[in-house]
Write a structure and sequence with these properties.
48% of the residues lie in helices and 9% in strands. The chain has 249 residues and is α/β, with parallel strands linked by helices. The longest helix has 26 residues, at 94-119.
């Protein structure tokens, strides 16, 4: 993805928003309602993965400048302490997982700050949204409980969550251990799947959790369990004003 960074920043949004550059026209909403929120260009919430070299400050600066130029506002979402579940699922002790998670969160926040400076822009809400800072919100707790309960009673959803968690844990283990092909234990999968339960509130209700009238959470690749959100028979429904989109960024 290429995009020339502007040399000067006007903190007032222009009355018209430039068209999406061809390289990013693949940004698509999960549902027609999500696409309407995306097409409004009102606000974009960029989901940033932890422990990924992809999201360095150079890459983020280009992404942020693009978001600044094509949406009226944008913000960033990172997991924070939620990542401990993945680390523990990959074999780290609770103490080490907490230490690694704090270090990664600091690294992400620093990269985001540096990238905003490079892109000569700013976040709509002033600072990144950190999922673990919202666990006390009633809406967050309600959706977390709903997701966990559905996981317990629906075999297909449970299998999809465990498969997604196994892939995430295996990727993390490959990044830190040489030639470790040991299957992830059922006990560790039970820990890792909590990461999904923690993400789901923002997947379904990003707008109210962020205090925004409308926003579209976007990620650079599809969420494997998103099919359960589009299935009308499941309780996992998007809240008003909240959308999800997948982009090629």
């Amino acid at each position: 993805m290429t995009h020339a960074l502007a040399t000067r920043h006007d903190h007032h949004r222009p009355p018209t928003i430039p068209p999406v550059p061809p390289v990013l026209t693949g940004l698509t909403g999960l549902t027609s309602g999500c696409q309407q929120i995306l097409d409004s260009r009102e606000h974009l919430l960029l989901g940033i993965s932890p422990f990924s070299s992809k999201f360095d400050r150079s890459y983020l600066s280009t992404l942020f400048r693009w978001a600044h130029d094509h949406f009226r506002g944008f913000d960033v979402l990172i997991p924070g302490a939620l990542s401990e579940h993945l680390l523990r699922g990959a074999g780290s002790s609770p103490t080490k997982a907490a230490q690694k998670c704090r270090r990664e969160t600091r690294r992400q926040l620093t990269a985001i700050t540096d990238a905003l400076t490079l892109a000569d822009t700013q976040l709509h809400s002033g600072r990144p949204f950190v999922i673990s800072e919202h666990i006390g919100q009633p809406l967050y707790q309600d959706i977390h409980t709903l997701t966990a309960a559905y996981y317990q009673r629906d075999e297909a959803f449970r299998a999809a969550c465990r498969d997604m968690s196994a892939h995430a844990v295996d990727h993390r283990r490959r990044a830190t251990t040489t030639n470790d092909a040991t299957p992830t234990s059922a006990e560790n999968l039970d820990i890792a799947v909590e990461y999904i339960f923690g993400e789901m509130p923002f997947f379904l209700a990003a707008a109210p959790l962020c205090g925004l009238p409308r926003t579209c959470l976007t990620y650079y690749r599809n969420w494997p369990i998103s099919r359960f959100v589009t299935d009308p028979i499941t309780p996992l429904t998007l809240r008003p004003g909240s959308g999800f989109a997948v982009g090629p960024f």
